[in-house]
Amino acid sequence: MINKSKFIPGLKLSEIFYREAVKPILNKDYPNLIYSAALLGSGSEVLGLDTPQSMDHHWGPRVQLFLNENNYNKYKDAIVLTMSNKLPYKFHDIPTNFGKPDKTGVQLLKEIDKGPINHRVSVITIKSFFHQFLLLIRITKLLFMIG
Fold it and tell me: What is the dihedral of CA 138, 141, 61, 122, to 10 degrees?
């Protein structure tokens, strides 16, 4: 478990992770790529409500890269692989590697010092993001109606 004194609110962590770690890699390896970067979706950090307690589930350096459909099909796999091989193992003394999801889908930070990084730099399109997000909202509403 990571030391809670290292807590940085998720939105701030995402912003500096993008600016200091992800963007320089993209600028060097994909200088003409057009994309947007953000942290959207569900989660207390997206709402600005995360606390050091949030570090025990899904918290950590992450960002979403939004590409158009053509660039997504052309670059997605290459970008994911590039980030796995070029991101630092730690960012502001916080691991950038996440363990495999548990049976409920929760991923925790896992320190490594060699090999590819299982990062959370997601490469996605606007269309697929909203499709997934709206589906999540529908499922959540259905679960509340059933429960």
Answer: -10
